[in-house]
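Hello,

Our lab assistant flagged a job as stuck in the queue for most of the afternoon. It eventually completed. Since we weren't sure the result was trustworthy after the delay, we are filing this so someone can double-check. Below is the sequence as submitted and the structure that was eventually returned. Let us know if re-running is recommended.
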Amino acid sequence: MVRSGVGGIRSVAGVENGKAGQVDRLPGGIVLADRSLASSLAHNRSGHAVQVDWGRVLVGQLEFYWDIHLRPRLDGLTDEEYFWEPVDGCWSLRRDDDGRWHLDGQRPEPTPPPLTTIAWRLVHLGATCFANRASTFFGDGSVPEDADMADPRHVPTDLPGSADEAVAFLERTYRRWHQGIASLDDEAMLRPLGPKGGPYAKDSMGQLVAHISREAMHHGAEIALLRDLYRSTGATGRDSRLIPRR
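-- returned structure --
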């Protein structure tokens, strides 16, 4: 008998939720057992095989990270923190002569790359991870079909110039991406990206979902650390420096 469990894990032969003994079940489809996750996903303690809905596991992982870790850490973000440059030469979000906000950048990227502000990291995540991929694969048709996921036409032009606007922007772009990937079945997760994937055309949608989640966790952790540093070092504004100006 197969029963549905959390996080896309289903039990076989009547072993409830694919486990025997004590297992902690967390929001977002995360299952923690008292042995390795990889092993617990493969077999339960009775030796029965466990069926895993990897699409739900991937989506659940991102949901858990967003709901429990990243979104709560953005509460109370101020404009001074948003634009804080801990050292000279940071990349940030800046208003150009056209009146619009743009991310600093350079190709090829210098080695080592400059430190980036919370504004840079948050907007990069919202605009060039969530928004452009959502537009590419779950868009409304406003961008031509032949535009791959690296096409700048998929990137929003109304980038947020304040902390409150940035948090709202990230929430919108996350929801668009999450809604799209949550609608995918197994076949869609395994399907190659095709021409819209550009040089990654042979990769599956599931691989892209995993990559975007890595980006969210990577930049989300950086944002959280910068907030901790801003608070713990006594910074008072965007021009406070961890290293005195030369």
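-- support follow-up --
The delay was a queue issue, not a problem with the job. The result is valid. The chain has two domains: 3-52, 57-232. Confidence is low (pLDDT under 50) at residues 1-42.
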